[in-house]
Each structure stands twice: as structure tokens, then as C-alpha cells.
Amino acid sequence: MDLMKPELLRKLKKLIEDDEVQKFYTWKEYKFLRSKAKTRDNNECQMCKREGKHGQYGACHHKEEVREKPELALTLSNVEILCKHHHNIVHPEKLNTTPIFMNEEWF
User: Fold this and answer.
1) Model confidence over 57-89: pLDDT tens digits?
2) Cα→Cα distances 71→9, 35, 36, 54, 61, Å
3) CA gap 51, 13 in Å, rounded
4) Per DSSP, what are the bridge partners of residue 79?
């Protein structure tokens, strides 16, 4: 299933250009795709499953990054359900690791 239409692709490319990709995840098309992926994967983490474990839904992961391959952003075969643990492993850059500011007076 591929929900990407030419006008959506243009809109997504503009979001990428403007560094506003987060807005894509509010689109009704993405929410529908995520719903289909959750049903297909039975709300189970696919990486846990491959390891013989069981993990619940944490994120809908794009195998091919949205910024790298926007044309696949709404393709069901390009997404899989991951638990938060595995999604953080795949995307460590998305973890909030911003250092806390400490001024000169802080000991």
C-alpha cells in the first residue's frame, strides 16, 4: 500500500527543506498508515520478535528515512512497529541528550 500522491510528496519535500518534518507526523495519511502498520504487526515490536522476545508498540519506524527517501514515507512496506527501546537504538540522535547549562557560579 502506497498513499503518497504527487501533491503530498511536494508538500513533504517542502517540509524537509524547511526543516519541519515533524509536521508530517500529524498528517491524516501518516496516521492511517501507522494504524495499518500497528494492525499488521499486531502492536508488537518487530525487532523484539526477531530476537524471540515480546515488546509492545512504541513507535512506527521508517526503514528508509523520511528525509532520505520522502517518496517512501507513506508506503506500508517501509514502516515497522518498534518498542521505544529498539527505536532509541535505531535512532540515538532522537534521544534528548542536550547538556544542562551550568553557569560559572554552579558548583
Assistant:
1) 989 999 999 999 999 999 999 999 999 999 999
2) 6, 19, 18, 31, 15
3) 35
4) 62
Q: 13: Cβ–Cβ under 8 A, 6 or more apart, which residues? A: 70
pTM recorded for the entire structure: 0.81
Buried b (16+ CB within 10 A) or exposed e, 36-63: ebeeebeebbbbbeeeeeebebbbbbbe
- By CB atoms closer than 10 A (0-12, 13-18, 19+), residue 90 is middle
Using CB atoms within 10 Å of the CB of residue 94, give its burial: 0 to 12 exposed, 13 to 18 middle, 19+ buried: exposed
Would you give the end-to-end CA distance of the chain in angstroms?
Answer: 56
User: pLDDT tens for residues 11-38?
Assistant: 999 999 999 999 999 999 999 999 999 9
Pairwise CA distance, residues 35 & 31, whole Å: 6
